[in-house]
Amino acid sequence: MRGATDELSLVFQALADPTRRAIISRLRGGPTTVGELAEPFAMSRPAISQHLKVLERAGLIERTADAQWRRCTLRTEPLDEASAWVDRHRDEWNERFDLLDERLRELKGQTDA
Amino acid sequence: MRGATDELSLVFQALADPTRRAIISRLRGGPTTVGELAEPFAMSRPAISQHLKVLERAGLIERTADAQWRRCTLRTEPLDEASAWVDRHRDEWNERFDLLDERLRELKGQTDA
DNA sequence: CCCTCATGTAAGCAACTCCTTATTTAATAA
DNA sequence: TTATTAAATAAGGAGTTGCTTACATGAGGG
Fold first, then answer.
1. Backbone Cα Rg of chain B
2. At what angle do helices B18-27 and B45-57 cross, to 10 degrees?
3. Contact between B30 and A100 using a beta-carbon 8 Å cutoff
């Protein structure tokens, strides 16, 4: 992705990585420090920090300072947007689809005949 | 993304681009040729071809040959998966969240007191 | 057969991603 | 103060993305 700074793109892009999805899943259990988050992954702390930055840029997490720890908490709004987009395109197209496909078949039949 | 060949990552990655989302929206109206798809975009045909390849790799479209045209049709299954993941993480965390947050506040209160 | 139209593929380029190790910042504890 | 701990930042490298232009493929029409 070369530009794509719109919100929806940032959210989908953030979700397009197994490590980041695992972080989100992990955070579902409640706010967690960066060190705790990094522990189960075979990856350096800076790598996790960078993943968190991507999630933060997408609005999916918030980092608040707590002494020398950063407490990461999830935010649900961006997922609502993503979910809305997906569902909108999922539900409607099947019906429309069959209808238009049939109509096209009709038209093609007329032309060919 | 350096590896990330799992299905879910491919789907989210495919959705993480405005052009590709626009293509999907457009395809909701029914099967469409590559040329018709490319027309509204300020972008070369090969660029669209490559976007379609990304969508195809994610299983979001199918291309079938129809004379010298390629008719692109949408597939809904991958979106079902994506939707399932998002919804799973959306619905549950709010409740859990408030609970654990409260519990943490309690613990912290005890420690501080 | 040649010519055109619709599309795909190849090669190249700048920007970005995802990791690394080394360094820096900031808070706690002695 | 100095040392330790938690985390962010810097710099760098291999690989990927998203575009471009040029060329290849393949069907239909003269």
1. 21
2. 80
3. yes
Distance from the B36 Cα atom to the nearest Cα atom in chain A, whole angstroms: 15
**CATH: 3.40.50.1110, 3.60.10.10, 1.10.10.10, 3.30.310.50. Which one for B7-76?**
1.10.10.10
Interface test with A, best of B2, B11, B12, B80 (most A CBs within 10 A): B12
Nucleic acid strand C: bases within 7 A of protein CB:
5-11, 14-22, 26-28
| Distance from residue B10's CA to nucleotide D14's C1', rounded to whole Å | 21
Helix (H) or strand (E) holding A70: strand A69-74
- Does residue B113 have a pLDDT over 60? no
- When the candidates are 1.10.10.10, 1.10.3210.10, 3.30.470.20, 1.10.10.60, the CATH number that belongs to A7-75 is 1.10.10.10
Task: Note if the pTM is more than 0.90.
Answer: no
Closest nucleotide to A66's CA, by C1' atom? C27
Provide the 10 A C-beta neighbour count for residue B27: 22
Average pLDDT, chain A: 85
Angle between helices A45-57 and A7-15 (to 10 degrees): 150
Q: Which residues of chain B make contact with A82, given a CB cutoff of 8 A?
A: 86
pLDDT tens-place string over residues A51-108: 999 999 999 999 999 999 999 999 999 999 999 999 999 876 555 545 554 444 444 4
What's the rounded mean pLDDT across residues A24-45?
Answer: 95
Per-residue pLDDT band at A38 (split at 50, 70, 90):
very high
